[in-house]
Amino acid sequence: MDDLRPDGLPPLYRLALAYSPAHLRSVYLCLMALDQKLAQIISQASEPLLAQMRLAWWRDQLAKPAEQRPNGEPLLVAIGDAWAGEEPALRALVDGWEELLTDPPLPDSAAENFAEGRAAAFAAIARLAGVDDGQGAVSLAARRWALADLAAKTSASDERAGVVAIGLALGSDPVRLPRAMRPLLVLDGLARTSLAAGGAPLMQGRRNLLSTMRLGLFGR
Predict the structure, then answer these.
(1) CA 47 to chain centre
(2) What are the pLDDT digits (tens) for 120-129?
(3) What is d(CA 186, CA 142) in angstroms, rounded to the nearest whole number?
(4) How far apart are CA 206 and CA 220, in angstroms?
(5) What residues does each domain of the chain span?
(6) Which residues, 6 or more positions from 77, have their beta carbon under 8 angstroms from its beta carbon?
(7) 3-state percent breakdown (helix, strand, coil) of the chain, nearest 5
(8) Do 151 and 164 contact (CB within 8 A), yes or no?
(9) C-alpha separations of 72 from 30, 66, 69, 78 in Å
(10) pTM, whole model, 2 decimals?
(11) Between 20 and 30 A from 87 (CA), which of 7, 26, 58, 156?
(12) What is the mean pLDDT of the chain?
């Protein structure tokens, strides 16, 4: 059950998850656990082909009916409970991560597709929560966060600058999101600060933490 324990998530996710409404906690937790697992597949694979095979396994399992997925994988079981009917969005998340397996330098299209994969997952959470995202605020916030997170973890300065430029092109104005999407609002707040600083780590400094807590508590 380690995949489903909040204390197994990175600090950034634990911070965002703390502001999730109770009835959506398992939905957010599943997404964050899966996203973290996909990140590990990409970062730890010695060969791109091996990473592609592992990503394909997750994509294939998420395409099956819940009752046909392996019971020995607790994350899949939890997804079957919390994400019923929205698994295509999680497959889009897998596709997004696979974009990062391209040979360097990372093309703009790969970064954009990666961001779209994460945005699809958060759009699914909005649907599960009954949130009308007619203005596209959920997608904007999710893409901005995805790009900031990617830039902060990119070691090559030219690639990082390219990802930051794509993120900055999305604008820097805060979005307005309902209470159900508060974890995403927290991530977007951190992302805007990171992008403005050229792709700096998303969690840094006491002032940054205090402003994030204000977003989480009050939504602004």
Answers:
(1) 24
(2) 999 999 999 9
(3) 11
(4) 18
(5) 2-218
(6) 69, 71
(7) 70, 0, 30
(8) yes
(9) 16, 13, 9, 11
(10) 0.94
(11) 7
(12) 92
